[in-house]
Amino acid sequence: MLLLASSSAGAVVIRHDVGDSKYRVPASEFPALVDMPHEGHGVLIAPEWVITVAHVLPAHAGSLQVTIGGVPRDVERVVVHPGYRTPPQALIDQAMATGEAVLILVLLASSDDIALVKLKQPVTDVVPVALHRGGEEPNQVVRIFGKGATGTGATGHDPKGPNRTALRGASNRITSAHGRWFCYVFDAPPMALPLEGIGGNGDSGSPVLITVDDEWVLAGLAAWKLLDGDVRTSRPGRYGQTSCNVRLGHYIEWIESVISGQPQVGADGPSRPTPLRGAD
Fold this sequence. Notes:
This protein has 280 residues and is mainly beta. It is 10% helix and 34% strand. The chain is built from three helices and 17 strands. The protein has helices spanning 89-98, 102-109, 252-260; strands at 9-14, 33-35, 41-46, 49-52, 65-68, 71-80, 115-119, 141-146, 168-178, 181-185, 197-201, 207-212, 215-226, 242-247, 265-266, 269-270, 274-275. The strands form four sheets. The protein has a six-stranded antiparallel barrel. Strands 8-9-10-14-13-12 form a six-stranded antiparallel barrel. It has a two-stranded antiparallel sheet with strand order 1-11. Residues 1-10 and 265-280 have low confidence and may be disordered.
């Protein structure tokens, strides 16, 4: 979730004045959480389908497995949105040399960082999560989960990891939503929610949930966040940072076309499913 290079984002960074035990949750609180290889997450949205952000997928998948409910699951294929783009190495090198990453931000904001993973066998022991299909996300309180890096808003977390820790849950309030993204800010006390938090490194693809008719539905996936100042020295997860998340309502047509096998024209034009980096 770092702005720089869209690296895999982290387990919930928490308030400095609330004990970590208040944020820790059992796996049973969100069983549809998917652990991607090494780090990063996805969410089970149908018995054979996992949704995640494209940048957590390995460049060369080989024989890919994901873990759901503590059980490894074999992957049949991966479908990356055709509008996904990765930052050129020259752009990353420039950011590392200067500490300025605004051009990477521009690229990230214009990229469709979303992918679907089809499993070889349907999952029968975990209930999939429904997708949020509406708009009007601003001002809604969201629930987030993750196992990545952790720390507190006062200090942030170590950008060098570890990026897989214990499962934590937190809340936040959406401040803006448009097109591909919706965002929230990690507020410091006394403005913060009782269990306010933000994702850190290692949680890209983790769920952002909102309530519809008293049920939690999947509205977004953690993707990247804004770091102030020099990206080489800024610590992720400090108060005041903004987290931007893939807005799934923007991609409903694409998601349904991939799962049904019937390409459709979405909000940004034709989006024929393109299998990339799959595991046969």
